[in-house]
Amino acid sequence: MITLENDNIRLIIHEASGTITELLDKRSNTQHLLARKPELELMEPGMGILEIEPFIKGKRSVVDLSNDSVTLKVEEGGKALVKEVKLMRQGALITIKATGVNRVRELLHVACGNGGYWGEALGAMYNCRYFVKFGFTEPPNSFSSVGLKPPVSGFRFSKHSYNDRYFPELEWIAFINESRRVGLLVKCLSPCYGVVEDQFFNVELNLVANGKGESSLTYELTLFNGLSRVDYADDDLIIEVNSPSVVKPGDSINGSLSIYSLSISGGLNVNGYVKLVKSMPTLGRRGYDVDRVRVGEFKLGLTLEGNVINLKPGSASTVRFTTEPVTWSMEDTLYSIPYLEFNVNGKVVSRAFSINPDYAAAVNALGGRNPGLVNHINDWSDEVEGFYDDKLASMPIYELAAEDFSTSRRLIKERQLPEEAVKVLKEYLSSDVKVYPAIFLDLSKATRNGYVTSALADMILKSASSHVFLGSPISDALRGLEMVASAYERGELIHWFNGIHGGAGSAGLLQLTLAYDLIEDELPEELKTRLKLMFRWAQGELIKLTNAWAGNWELTEALALLAISSKFNFNNSRLGLIKAESVFRSTLNYFLNDGGWLEESAGYHNAVLNIVTWGAELLRLSGIDLYSVARNGEPVIRKAVYWLWNVLDPRYRMPALEDSGDDVPNPDPFIISGVRYNDPVLLKVGLRLMELGSRPTSLLSALALIDGYSLVKSPIEPRHEQVTVLDDSGRFIVRSSDEYNATYFILDYGPHGAWHGHPDKLSFELHSNGEPLIVDAGSGGYYSDLHWKWSRRSIAHNTVTLGDKDQLETRGRLVKYWVNGDDVYAVFEANTYPGVNHRRGVVALGKLIYVILDKISGVGEFRWNIHCMGNVVYMKRNSMALTTGRTDYIIVLPKTPEVTYGWRGHSTRTVYAYYEDHSVGELNMWGIIIPFKADVGFNGSEVSITYGGSTYVVKPLELYNLLFNNEH
Q1: Which fold has domain 723-964?
Q2: Nearest-5° angle of CA 225, CA 185, CA 26?
Q3: pTM for the full model?
Q4: Quick one: which of 589, 627, 759, 929 has the fewest CB in 10 Å?
Q5: Per-residue pLDDT tens digits for 63-106
Q6: Are strands 246-247 and 354-355 parallel, antiparallel or unpaired?
Q7: With respect to CATH, is domain 237-366+383-391 assigned 2.60.40?
């Protein structure tokens, strides 16, 4: 990384790619750009990050480096790219020159003051606005309206819209966090056009310049603060005109003119007026066909509180103004566009607005139907600000006037819980209880950088639940809901409510809906109004976002949509219910026939199962029974819950296969499904998980126990089969018993697992004595280098690889298995590389000692990989002794292995051992895992294992013949 820094700015460039990864305004501690680490480290474009055209993957070389500038160069295949970044007092100057191409394109990912590395950054929010100066002015005598637009077009960031907006002849574009008043100005200094797309976490800005054989692009980044919009920019000043987009006829405009000085100090003369401009483009836009147009201008008075404004470089100065009442007439105003226009020392600053009788009619209609909402009208109009289509400016007000703000039902009718349900409730509450039964809101958990998180929604529901069921005060719930309403009004109800952001955090909206439902009768009327507006807005966003693609994010969005649409009688609630139900029904189709979730990860299976059961509980309120949906005669949800139970190890933890950790699942789906299916086994698994410290994550678990209290007394206890085959998801599990210290083996031969799958066919984990010994890499966390450089590599798994190359995304199959007394035998097969067939035999002697035998068909240097917990105690020629501190165990191999280290999860270091052998067509490889302390000896090809006075003799050659001869 290369850092350029002065008193105002810190700019960091990723040297290998030339990407600016940090643009920090030190004065406001604001990050404006967003970068994604994995693509930077791997030098691969992905998720819209790390793109420049021409994209040349070769490493950039530093041509020149000084305290305030750097020049990077890269060449490849007759193409060359030179990029110079020079630090300025309040920004940076970037020049890109490319040869051997006809176009150069630079990509910026702008987060409107919430940038940084993705994973650490909050990303752009709904308070993000961008203002664009582009294009040409239509001649006044032309009937075309192509050029009719505001002097500067303004757009509200719309997450996930993915609409491309093209800006030819781009002069500048300014990105602003409206509520925090921090901004970034991007100014084209050479001819260019811009393309903007509102994405996941950011606004993507493409700056494009064309050429012939060579192209160049020069642009400037300028940081500023103290403004909520930009209507004018040059080398000296950045100016905003702060006033409504739309006004009613007869109203006066009260606004302000704010000037941010880049270089000028001292007083500037300012004067202004309202200008109404009539021209043929105006008429063309309005759709009138007339023979004669009296082209001209008309002015109204405007009073400034002062005609001199004093400037200081690096800060904003403001002067307020008031206009005469703005009149409207059919003759003049209808055919004109009004502007607020100011002269600032000879610089003309202009902003278009709309004098709109239809808007006045809409406000009157709203006042007649719901006068309390009139004070909540937003003074921003997308239609006026963007491309001046003011005939649509009143539609949001009419829609608000026609809205039904009543609630449809009480979601939670009960106010008394049975004893066992109270225990579950208290476990759910316990993480936030300070002095029981009082709940407190820990704002350090509920906010991040001043933005509310979904942790706040969780605390609000816990506070409301404690108030209703346990009699604690309501004050914290009210305080939290006030924070939520205020965040929505600032456009900041976004971070970790990130189903609307782009993730699973929209479950926070379920919690808020349930909290509202619990204490609805005790809420102040004004707060209820504000919260209903928030829920209505969220419903509208979720209707656009929710879809039936298979993914936990989409399903969580459907859950939030279902909750809001179940509670409120909004005009779109029927649509929301239909769409949410459809998504949940579709989701059940994505569970495999054995109950496994298609992503193959136990962690994601658990997450999806939670959402599905919560959704099923809400759908019951509308008379819709998701629990009865069956496949092959068995309810899908019940089978999915049993799948999770079947893969749990003796400690009730999940195997860290694919993108999963070895966490204890939460008890909610077991408790809820146990009640709904009248199944004491599932219910007791849920209660057992609670005993092991796993807390319920939903109030719905306690409420479900109202209907299933008698099941708790059932004598039926959970017991696993000693061998479990989940063939559709490809999980083969062997247990020595159900005791905590039992030996547990799980092998993965199933489908790849979609986005969360790893290239890990025929890999396995082995646990014994209450701890994992042979482990999978699991997930290192998507925002860490480790996840992409290690966790998703084939060599990070206990399988055979072709050198260190990653396997194909494939699935294997179980060829056969059988049980002989206490011994288990199994054979699996997968085509793991082009031209390579891998057959793996597993022999569990006494379900304790595991012999892994591999038969490889293919040519090349193959590697037998194994990843072990603990530390190496000693190495011998064919064996390796390890200890975790609690468990001593041994690995036996036919060759002395290379020993290094690997990783499990994001921080646990493992012992990584492997040996390699060359194949000219057929190759046998093997290893033996002995999960206890023993003496190991070799007699030719035989291995003797002695412990406690007993000796096992393992004969790999005989086992090869037993397993692989006539296996088909």
Answers
A1: Beta-galactosidase; Chain A, domain 5 (2.70.98)
A2: 45
A3: 0.93
A4: 589
A5: 888 989 999 998 888 889 999 999 999 999 999 999 998 999 99
A6: parallel
A7: yes
